[in-house]
Design brief:
Rossmann fold; binds NADP nicotinamide-adenine-dinucleotide phosphate; 7 strands; globular; 262 residues; 47% helix
Length: 262
């Protein structure tokens, strides 16, 4: 009998992360659940153990704190049972660019990009060595849309997409699957955490539907999964346009339109 890999999920105390935890428990995976709110994690762990008879460990950590992050990195490096990392913890942005404090900017970027990257970097060498495993990074369609007025949050999510594409190129030849999941508005606490009543949004996906769709993409080993995108060819067109643009980058000379006095 093969043992299923343990799934390490950040931001597992609520929303998308808690739903991933439930779905992977139902599939029979042991879990390591990470977030700051230990009480909520303990409750979820007890319920999932009871319902699905899997081992669920809870690790209380604030991913913006270097000391907490390095404990998690060590665990990801050393624990050979961990085969799937769900890099999900994230916060959104409250207010526009002019309303941001230095501290809020730092926290947002640290959690959404630095912590996510460091955790992926901690687990990747071991997965590559064993030629198996998966890293799932939760991005957002906001990463495509500067028009949404969430410039810093969107920039962190554009980072997550780019990082995932790059990691996939580097790691998939070594047997490691990388997936970027890009939700749009999803009914979770992220909204009330930034002072928005989710019920005022025109369209919202239920979190179970989002995660189930993301797992369809996961099972298909899709690199970029965008559950709310109804016309898949739009993504293919964007990728085609990007590659077309790259084919017209000539490194040795500036384009004619930038020649002095042109
Ligand atoms: N909901 C949406 O509409 C939507 C859309 C696109 C993308 N996303 C992305 O989906 C991911 C999950 O968000 P969600 O919607 O499920 O929101 P959520 O319900 O607010 O969950 C966020 C999770 O991150 C954890 N977290 C927050 N700050 C943390 C920190 N400093 N250290 C460790 N854990 C921390 C929270 O737990 P604690 O408070 O216990 O630490 C919670 O478990 C995020 O990356 C978000 O950007 C969400």
């Amino acid at each position: 009998m093969t043992t299923l890999p343990t799934v390490f999920i950040t931001g597992a105390s609520s929303g998308i992360g808690a739903t991933y935890a439930e779905r992977f428990a139902r599939r029979g995976h042991d879990l390591i659940l990470v977030a700051r709110d230990k009480l909520r994690l303990d409750k979820l762990a007890a319920r999932l153990h009871e319902e699905s008879n899997v081992a669920v460990e809870v690790v209380q950590a604030d991913l913006t704190r270097p000391a907490d992050l390095s404990v998690l990195e060590t665990r990801l490096r050393d624990d050979a049972r961990i085969g799937i990392l769900i890099n999900n913890a994230g916060i959104a942005q409250s207010g526009g660019f002019l309303a941001q404090s230095a501290e809020a900017i730092e926290r947002l970027i640290t959690l959404n990009t630095t912590a996510l990257t460091r955790l992926a970097a901690a687990v990747a060498p071991r997965l590559a060595q064993s030629g198996t495993g998966a890293i799932v990074n939760i991005g957002s369609v906001v990463g495509f849309a500067p028009e949404f007025g969430m410039s810093i949050y969107g920039a962190t999510k554009a980072f997550v997409l780019f990082l995932s594409q790059g990691l996939s190129l580097e790691l998939s030849p070594k047997g490691v699957y990388v997936q970027a999941v890009l939700p749009a508005s999803t009914r979770t606490e992220i909204w009330e955490r930034v002072g928005i009543d989710v019920n005022t949004l025109p369209e919202v996906m239920e979190v179970g539907e989002l995660v189930d769709a993301a797992l369809v993409g996961f099972d298909r080993r899709e690199l970029v999964t965008i559950p709310p995108l109804h016309v898949a060819e739009r993504w293919d067109a964007l990728e085609g346009a990007r590659q077309g643009l790259m084919s017209d980058i000539r490194q040795a000379h500036a384009a004619e339109r930038y020649w002095p006095n042109a």
